[in-house]
Amino acid sequence: MDRFRLGLVGIGKIARDQHLPAVASNDRFTLAAIASRHGQVDGVPNYLDTAAMIAGTALDAVSFCTPPEGRYELARIAIEAGKHVMLEKPPAATLSEIEALADFARARNVTLFTSWHSREAAGVGPARNWLSRREIKAVRIHWREDIRRWHPGQEWILAAGGFGVFDPGINALSIATAILPAPLFVEAATMDVPAGRAGPLAAELQLRCGGARGHASFDFLQTGPQTWDIEVDTDAGTLRLSLGGSVLQLPGEAECTEPDQEYPRLYARFAELLATGGSDVDLRPMRLVADAFLLAERREIEAFAF
Ligand code: NAP
Predict the structure, then answer these.
(1) How far apart are alpha carbons 123 and 120 in whole angstroms?
(2) What is the pLDDT of residues 89-102, one digit of tens each?
(3) How far apart are CA 170 and CA 118, in angstroms?
(4) For domain 119-258+290-301, which architecture applies?
(5) Which DSSP letter does residue 101 get?
(6) What strands lie across the sheet with 227-234, from one edge to the other?
(7) Taking the CB of residue 177, how many other CB atoms lie within 10 A of it?
(8) From the CA of 77, how far away is ligand 1's center (Å)?
(9) pTM for this structure?
(10) Where are the domains of the chain?
(11) Contact, 158 vs 199, CB < 8 A?
């Protein structure tokens, strides 16, 4: 079977750390070209922008690793040209943008895949299966990391459309919406926004899931041990997912973990969608973030510098 010829856009941290190795190890794809203003990749044609890449190299699909702000315009160019599209999380800067892209992809009969890499962490599937048979009593999310360590110099992340602490926090919400057996709602929120920035450095969300209460605590200033944990109290005890979903602890059982396969699984899923002609556009994590921004009490905190 012929390989899908892939173009990769936005050669930054995640493209280098994850997309390039995952594409190289997947025999359904050939990296055919890249588009980036500063980043370069050896061995394939390098272009400065998406339109030039699509005009210059024959492609089946384009995968976008740029920041969410501005991705709508880029993805539109690819869909307009009849290319299948995979988007990094969060899929766009606003819900209206991603809904319009989904409509456009449908109209052009191309695949659109809004990827949520954290859902591919080893513990997420087993957690979903276990929770599907339980009554949920409470949900606790602690997602605390050091912005300077993981996002050095990424000014876009605290600009409008950059999501602030919801850039990592949306990963927790992507897992929660995948594993919980009932819809999740935001009931109240607070956000701490540094002076002169648009995106919050910290946020607290009060959540509801069926009859259960929940809480999410997102912090971008955690030094020392980093925390990406979700706990769910149920009628059969407490489920713990830690390290971003990669370690699962069920009541009375040994901890369960596997090597990280998030991005290989994402590209396997994209290949499956391309082969079957389907799309996968799940906007629930994005909707919860939008709801948090709608409800939030915003507090200004002292200015932040990377
Ligand atoms: P990054 O290191 O800043 O890379 C993004 C790349 O996109 C840049 O190198 C830049 O390349 C290009 N770009 C295009 N327009 C841009 C703009 N207006 N501002 C800044 N860069 C722009 O960011 P990243 O960490 O790879 O994150 C990219 C996406 O992946 C985000 O949606 C993020 O949430 C997601 N993600 C990141 C991680 C992570 O650990 N970092 C993990 C999972 C997912 P050129 O200048 O060469 O065009």
Answers:
(1) 8
(2) 999 999 999 999 99
(3) 9
(4) 2-Layer Sandwich (3.30)
(5) H
(6) 256-257, 247-249, 237-242, 227-234, 136-144, 212-219, 202-209, 184-194, 297-301
(7) 20
(8) 18
(9) 0.98
(10) 4-114, 119-258+290-301
(11) yes
Residue type present at position 55 = A
* Residue 46 Cβ < 6 Å to ligand 1: no
Interhelix angle 166-179/124-131, rounded to 10 degrees, is 40
156 alpha carbon to ligand 1 midpoint, in Å?
9
CATH architecture of the domain with residue range 4-114: 3-Layer(aba) Sandwich (3.40)
Q: In whole angstroms, give the CA distance from residue 260 to residue 258.
A: 6
Q: Ligand 1, residues 17, 37, 40, 66: which to mutate, most atoms within 8 A of Cβ?
A: 66
- How confident is the model at residue 167, as a pLDDT? 98
Burial class (CB in 10 A: 0-12, 13-18, 19+), 43: exposed
CA of 17 from ligand 1 middle (Å) equals 11
What span, in angstroms and rounded, lies between the C-alpha atoms of 98 and 159?
19
| Residues 115-126: tens digit of each pLDDT | 999 999 999 999
H or E, element range at 248: strand 247-249
Atom of ligand 1 nearest to the CA of 154: 3
Distance of CA 11 to the CA centre of its chain: 17
Q: Edge-to-edge strands of the sheet including 46-47?
A: 46-47, 29-35, 4-9, 61-64, 84-87, 112-114
Q: Does the Cβ of 70 fall within 6 Å of ligand 1?
A: yes
- Check pocket membership of 89 for ligand 1, CB cut-off 6 A: yes
The reply to whether ligand 1 has any atom less than 6 angstroms from the CB of 154 is: yes
Strands 136-144 and 227-234: antiparallel
For ligand 1, say whether the CB of 117 is within 6 Å of any of its atoms.
Answer: yes
What pLDDT does 197 receive?
98
Domains 4-114 and 119-258+290-301 belong to one CATH topology: no
